[in-house]
Amino acid sequence: xxxxxxxxxxxxxxxxxxxxxxxxxxxxxxxxxxxxxxxxxxxxxxxxxxxxxxxxxxxxxxxxxxxxxxxxxxxxxxxxxxxxxxxxxxxxxxxxxxxxxxxxxxxxxxxxxxxxxxxxxxxxxxxxxxxxxxxxxxxxxxxxxxxxxxxxxxxxxxxxxxxxxxxxxxxxxxxxxxxxxxxxxxxxxxxxxxxxxxxxxxxxxxxxxxxxxxxxxxxxxxxxxxxxxxxxxxxxxxxxxxxxxxx
Length: 247
Fold this sequence. Notes:
Elements: E1 3-6, H1 12-23, E2 27-32, E3 46-50, H2 56-66, E4 71-74, H3 89-117, E5 120-125, H4 138-159, E6 163-170, H5 195-206, H6 214-226, E7 233-236, H7 238-246
Parallel strand pairs: 1-2, 1-4, 2-3, 4-5, 5-6, 6-7
Helix pairs in contact: 1-6, 2-3, 3-4
C-alpha cells in the first residue's frame, strides 16, 4: 500500500485530493497548520498531521511522524488578488514563503529518502496563472512561476535517481478559499485609480465561462502521482486545459 503526504489539506484542492487518494486505496498523510477532526472520514489509512511549511522544525517533525512516503504533494498556498502597487511587500514575502520557499523546503526534505530508494514522486501544485498572463495577480503569479521553473529543472536533476517531479496547474474555482487565508483584504488592494479597470475583471471572476472543480484537481494530482512517464505538466479543469491548449 502506497503513502502520500499532502500539504495544505484543510480545505479546497488539498482536502479533495486527500479524499481522492484515500478512495483509491492509498494511505494519506493529510497535513495542515491546525488539524481539525471530522474533515476527513475516519479511517486507519488517514492521519492528520500538523505542518507549517514555512517552519523547518515543523517540517522535520511532520516527516518524522509520517515515516516513509511514496509521493509528496506540495499543495499548501496562499493567494493574493489586487493591484501590485497597493500590495505591501511584507505580504508579497509571506506569499513567497508559503507558495515558493515552503514547497522548496518540503521538496528538499524528502529528496534524501526518495533518492536512497531510487523511487518517489513529487507533485507541485501551481496555477493556471502560469499558463497565461492574468491581471491583478502579479505577486501570486510570480510565486507560482518560480515553482514552475524549479520543477522543470528538478525533474531533470532527479531523473537519474528514479525520482519523478511533476506539475499540476489548476484553473480557477470560485468555490475554493483562494484568498481567505491571508491577512490582506482584496478591497484594500484596489486603490480608486484601479477601480474602473478592476470592475470587469472581478465580474468575470464571479461568472467565469469555464471553471475548475476540486475533483478535477484531485484527479490530476493522482494522475501525476501514478503516471510512470516523463510527462511534466498536468493542467486541471476545463479552463486550465483550454489555456494549455492555446499556449
